[in-house]
Amino acid sequence: MNRNIDYVRKSIAQRKRNKVKSTGYDPVSRRIAPPQDEEMHGFPPIVTGGFPGAPTSKKRSSYLGVQVICSVLLFTGMFVSQKTNLAITAEPEAWVVNQLEEEFPFASVTAWYNERFGDPLQLVQSKDENQSKGLALPVNGTVTEPFQNHGKGIVMTTDGGSAVKAVKAGTVIFAGNDEQTNKTVIVQHKDGTNTIYGFLSSINVHLYEHIEAQEAIAQLNPAEGETKDFFFAVKKDEQYLDPIQVIKVDEGSE
To answer: Is residue 46 very low, low, confident or very high in pLDDT (cuts 50, 70, 90)?
Structure first.
């Protein structure tokens, strides 16, 4: 009886060994790694192996290749449009040039924002929000060169220190030195006009600052016993207008 039991046990053991060899699974060779420090403190273990299904370098290379091809095609299209006179490229090219050259309507945007939200949209805070909004010449003085002399603006003369005031509310789009009018300020208004103030002694405003009508934007400081010239112009749609007609005052008024 005992021999039969031993024989059965040996047969079972032999079958198990044969099964392990056929499946490749060896429970003895399986190793269980000890818990990491992260697991012992309640954090997930650090995984060092790769993940199945992760994007391969070949896929990343294919994406990069597509981007390079698109860039080359875009550059080629721009180059061809510049070097040829095809009708299909004329209209887009004209639109791009017009957008780059057209002056941004800062004053109109500020006026729209003011109507919607109540406060001026500006990068630099206006110094005085309660200025009078009457329309008048920028300085007190005498018109010594009328608009008809050169068709761009007028020249006024003052014999004392004077503040230069904006004729209308708007946004400063230039404040600096001009080749023809030296220290100059240009203010853009929501009606599409620009007012130009030149031959200034000093400038009180900054680029893109919102200003109110009759707000002091510059100073005229003639030397003692001398007079100071001041240039004033109004421009709309690339055309100069007679400031006297716009402001509706008489020449030679003080």
So the answer is: low
